Amino acid sequence: MSEKQCTTCGSSAYETRQITYLYSHQGKYLIVPNTPVEVCQHCGTVYYSAAVLKRIEQQFCDIHSDAMAPDDYLQVPMKAFG
Ligand SMILES: [Zn+2]
């Protein structure tokens, strides 16, 4: 397998981090804590693996079709810029 290269800066130095991902689709949302991502150590560009995104999509569909219960609910404040 060839080494990955950052498409932004060309660096091949990555680190794995866990972030809180906000998935939204057609006005519905799912907040996904502990989402594993790879971050370019040089420029900070965040990369999501296809497998991770697929898993999040699946969880989103399951939760919004009541096939899976979420861990928790958040009330999120909203305010337009300005
Ligand atoms: Zn980079």
Describe, in plain words, how this protein is organized in 3D:
18% of the residues lie in helices and 33% in strands. With 82 residues, the protein is an alpha+beta fold. It is globular, with a radius of gyration of 16 Å. The longest helix has 15 residues. The relative contact order is 0.19. The protein has a three-stranded antiparallel sheet. It has a domain of 47 residues. Bound molecules: zinc ion. The site of zinc ion has 8 residues, from loops. Zinc ion binds next to loops.
**Overall average pLDDT:** 94
Count of DSSP E strands? 3
Q: Secondary-structure element order, as H and E?
A: EEEH
Structural class determined from secondary elements: alpha+beta
- Please give the count of helices: 1
Rg, alpha carbons: 16 Å
* Bound ligands: zinc ion
Largest sheet: 3 strands, antiparallel
Low-confidence stretches: none
**Percent range for β-strand residues:** 25-35%
Can you give keywords for this protein?
three-stranded antiparallel β-sheet; globular; alpha+beta; binds zinc ion
Summarize it:
It contains 1 helix and 3 strands.
Topology overview:
Layout: E1 14-25, E2 28-40, E3 46-47, H1 50-64
